[in-house]
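Consider the tokenized backbone below.
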């Protein structure tokens, strides 16, 4: 019998409910969140301080502060590094937008560097050309959970006297030469947003091994208020500050999830290996198998590129990719376009739409910066060719889900005539 794709009215490979939602919620989660609810402190409370210690212990860093988002933590990182008006900070041209917009929060100018096609992380060979006398720091993003080569990055930073900030929002547990990412830079930011490997709905950590940097970043966290060493409250604002604290309920959920993080990450390794083995047999896919020496992947996001040249769709790559994704979704595969835009292509940068009146770019301390798109051809091609998956690889989903996902990819990629008709 002829095979009919689900998008053309056939039977989906993966039935509804087969792939389990993320994150799994257990009795421990319920118990800890309810205990927090029944407690006396629903703002920054005992679960927050306990979580900070537990996360710092898990990471192997001296200091961790629980904030209400990874973006808040990134903002604190920039302040911890003393970055401000007129400074430039290097960021990859393909990442979550707030890896770059965090700079705008503090009147700092992001300077974009294209990504490397194989790893999808910043192209280490292109960083030095972007350095100017105003460059202060590099935000090292470990995208999709793949550790950036921190040996090479730290050497570049040392050569140009730049501070390293790590955005490891997606990269819990990924490592370079056996050391966890998030521990190489002066400071780092992590996220516990819904989709992250450590999930508590929303939240984030600002981390550092450097006490002074940590204290500088922390001034932003609570209205610019600094506490005297005895911890007493002064009700006095010393400088610019935001409200970046998180709640005790959220911290209780994060604490319960943290007890299972190692187990989750181990399952992701098993699932990703199974998926890679299966998808190797599917035509016209470019699999995310490039892991430079010493770098490990936590498989936060399993990102595949369709080989649009081989498929004959190099000229209309994004629209044909959208058809392939639609066909895969119809088969029950939870896959999608994670970011369809290189970050510098977004209106915020093209229209220089931040503080108004052209700031921070028009500030008298600023130098000229170009966001011309021809500088980022790899990021653009990646945007047009990729699709990514998170939930199908996450616990409690196991290899049985990876096998069904493989089957669905095989079905769609071997019945392209039905995709072309969409
Ligand atoms: C690479 C990266 N950086 C920063 C963030 C921001 O984290 P949050 O959503 O917690 O603000 C995210 C979240 O998706 C991310 O993926």
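A designed sequence for it:
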């Amino acid at each position: 019998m002829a095979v009919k794709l689900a998008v053309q009215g056939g039977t989906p490979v993966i039935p509804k409910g087969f792939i389990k939602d993320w994150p799994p919620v257990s009795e421990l989660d319920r118990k800890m969140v309810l205990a927090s609810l029944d407690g006396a402190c629903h703002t920054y409370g005992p679960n927050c301080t306990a979580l900070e210690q537990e996360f710092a212990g898990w990471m192997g860093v001296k200091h961790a502060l629980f904030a209400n988002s990874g973006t808040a933590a990134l903002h604190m990182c920039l302040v911890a590094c003393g970055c401000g008006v007129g400074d430039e900070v290097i960021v990859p041209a393909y990442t979550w937008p707030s890896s770059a917009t965090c700079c705008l929060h503090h009147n700092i100018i992001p300077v974009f560097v294209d990504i490397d096609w194989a790893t999808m992380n910043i192209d280490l060979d292109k960083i030095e050309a972007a350095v100017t006398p105003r460059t202060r720091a590099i935000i090292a993003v470990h995208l999709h959970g793949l550790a950036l080569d921190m040996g090479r990055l730290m050497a570049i930073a040392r050569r140009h006297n730049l501070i390293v900030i790590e955005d490891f929002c997606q990269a819990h547990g990924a490592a370079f030469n056996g050391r966890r990412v998030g521990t190489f830079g002066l400071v780092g930011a992590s996220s516990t947003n819904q989709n992250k490997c450590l999930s508590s709905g929303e939240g984030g950590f600002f981390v550092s091994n450097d006490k002074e940097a940590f204290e500088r970043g922390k001034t932003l966290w609570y209205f610019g208020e600094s506490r005297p060493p005895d911890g007493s409250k002064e009700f006095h604002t010393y400088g610019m500050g935001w409200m970046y604290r998180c709640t005790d309920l959220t911290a209780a959920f994060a604490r319960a999830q943290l007890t299972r993080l190692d187990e989750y990450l181990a399952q992701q390794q098993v699932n990703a290996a199974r998926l890679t083995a299966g998808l190797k047999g599917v035509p016209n896919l470019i699999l995310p198998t490039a892991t430079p020496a010493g770098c490990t992947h936590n498989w936060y996001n399993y990102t595949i590129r369709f080989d649009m040249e081989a498929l004959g769709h190099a000229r209309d790559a994004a629209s044909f990719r959208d058809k392939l994704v639609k066909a895969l979704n119809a088969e029950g595969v939870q896959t999608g376009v994670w970011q369809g835009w290189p970050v510098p292509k977004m209106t915020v940068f093209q229209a220089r739409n931040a503080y108004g009146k052209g700031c921070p770019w028009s500030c008298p301390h600023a130098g000229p910066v170009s966001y011309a798109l021809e500088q980022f051809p790899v990021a653009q091609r990646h945007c047009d060719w990729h699709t990514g998956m998170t939930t199908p690889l996450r616990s409690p989903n196991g290899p049985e889900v990876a096998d069904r996902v493989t089957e669905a990819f095989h079905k769609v990629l071997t019945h392209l005539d039905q995709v072309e008709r969409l």
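The radius of gyration is 22 Å.
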